[in-house]
Amino acid sequence: MSLDTAAITAASARFPKPARSFTYGTAGVRTLGKDLDSTCFRLAIVAALRSKWAKGKVTGLMVTASHNPEQDNGLKAVDPRGEMLASSWEAHCTRIANAASDDELVGVVQDIVAKESIDLSQAAVVVYAYDTRPTCPALVRALEAGLDALGATKRNAGLLTTPQLHYLVRAYNTQGTDEAYGEPTEEGYYEKMAQAFKTLVPAASPLVVDCANGVGAPALQKLQKYIPAASLPFKVLRTAISTPGALNSGCGADYVKTTQSLPAGLESEVQADSRMCSFDGDADRIVFYYLRGDPREKASFRLLDGDKITALAADWISELVKTAEVDLKVGSVQTAYANGSSTRYLEQRVPVTCTPTGVKYLHHAAESYDIGVYFEANGHGTVLFSPASIAKLKGAGSGAPEAAAARKQLLALTELINQTVGDALSDMLLVEVVLRVTGRSFAEWDSTYEDLPNRLLKVLVPDRTLFETTDAERRLTRPAGLQAQIEHEAARYAGGRSFVRPSGTEDCVRVYAECEKADELGALAENIKKLVEDAAKAAAQA
Ligand SMILES: CC(=O)N[C@H]1[C@@H](OP(=O)(O)O)O[C@H](CO)[C@@H](O)[C@@H]1O
Ligand SMILES: [Mg+2]
């Protein structure tokens, strides 16, 4: 069977490429929604080819720009195991998105087919979903046209969170096998998680959830029907998914993490002792927080971020593994953005790996442990159980009654935690489980270690590609000489650490700085920023 090139060119003519370039980066393609019709059409073709390549297994496409503003949109491709698209295919996405004409597009498609030895007679099935952005319906139509052009079977999964789509893809592909992941429906997703949650927890006080006015809101409202309020009461806030401009505006995980404060206006909707958390716009990130001391003081805000979630989960799972009398290695994965205190805390307890920014790197590194706990500091992450560890837990028969109970808990955790990707809903339940089973408050969780004061700055430079890094992005190799200057500056502060890297999702360079004394932090961060600006100017002129 050959390509229906006429069908591709005819359809492509309806989605002309704007005069600009696109990149499939850390989190797929992300830019202004109005510019993305051609990209959606074209990446749908790639998703269909990927499905053919995988012998007809289902692949996925999610239309979302996550925590970015409402006018933005984007596409994330999902591989047959429910994980992010293999890095080796990202270049295909970038190339196809940038093909300058319909003919060049056909050429790129033929090239992918040849390079990946794709059998075109294979069937292709692609499941897709979208978030609440106003540009989604048009982009979904472009995406559908791309699937039609390749004769792929379309499965429109509707309005979903990103992790729900990842769940669906794995559930479809494992149906009826030993690795069956769950019913391949949205209901199946809620049922699986709720069932596991009920197995794990006693009751507790309500949790206030900021849904970022995004797709996490309807998802959480539906999940509530599966978990009785008596076992998990929620107060669900920021649910205005049809209010223009509301998405991620003054609320959501990214806002809370970057401003280190409550979502705008939340003070009047919560109590001084409320336990709170925020999702991002597509509900694959979560951070927790509470108020300590006088709620009118800014300093009363206490953030429990991805690093604190790693510490909480790694500690509890390590304890369970010990009690369960099974030989499993628990490890953790962080990026350079992890607070130095969290790294020190974890290193005394479990192996810690550092990877470059972007969850695909953390995810792969976590797979090398029997049980791998990974979170970016911004709250994106999950816990992975290797197939061998699940088999060991199921197979172990003897031992003390506590050992059997711990194995049962660990197995329920493998059901509760989304194994495909970080998932705000699932991570929220995980944290609830650990806190309740161990009888801890947010304040007790918070006291595991004290974060070093830290700051993240964006620096706009003429050309961010002049910045290159090594050692999991912890050191610069270019521009020449800058790394030595950064280290020299950081060494002037007690506990000083700083690193600089080009963003993979925005046109900027990021500066991270931390040190022991809060009143010295501003100087450290600003001095590094100045060094970066000077070096960027010099490098651009060279
Ligand atoms: C410092 C920071 O938060 N970086 C974010 C951001 O990446 P950058 O490459 O830094 O732009 O977006 C990524 C995708 O959402 C996320 O994985 C990552 O953690
Ligand atoms: Mg997101």
UniProtKB/TrEMBL annotation:
This is Phosphoacetylglucosamine mutase. InterPro entries: A-D-PHexomutase_a/b/a-I, A-D-PHexomutase_a/b/a-I/II/III, A-D-PHexomutase_C, A-D-PHexomutase_C_sf, A-D-PHexomutase_CS, AMG1_II, AMG1_III, PAGM. It catalyses: N-acetyl-alpha-D-glucosamine 1-phosphate = N-acetyl-D-glucosamine 6-phosphate. Residues 478-529 form the Alpha-D-phosphohexomutase C-terminal domain. Its cofactor is Mg(2+). Residues 205-287, 305-438 form the Phosphoacetylglucosamine mutase AMG1 domain. Pfam families: AMG1_II, AMG1_III, PGM_PMM_I, PGM_PMM_IV. One of its GO terms (molecular function) is magnesium ion binding. Mg(2+) binds at S66, D280, D282, D284. Keywords: Isomerase, Magnesium, Metal-binding, Phosphoprotein. GO terms for biological process: carbohydrate metabolic process; UDP-N-acetylglucosamine biosynthetic process. Binds 1 Mg(2+) ion per subunit. The lineage of its organism: Eukaryota, Fungi, Dikarya, Basidiomycota, Ustilaginomycotina. Gene3D superfamilies: Alpha-D-Glucose-1,6-Bisphosphate, subunit A, domain 3, Alpha-D-phosphohexomutase, C-terminal domain.
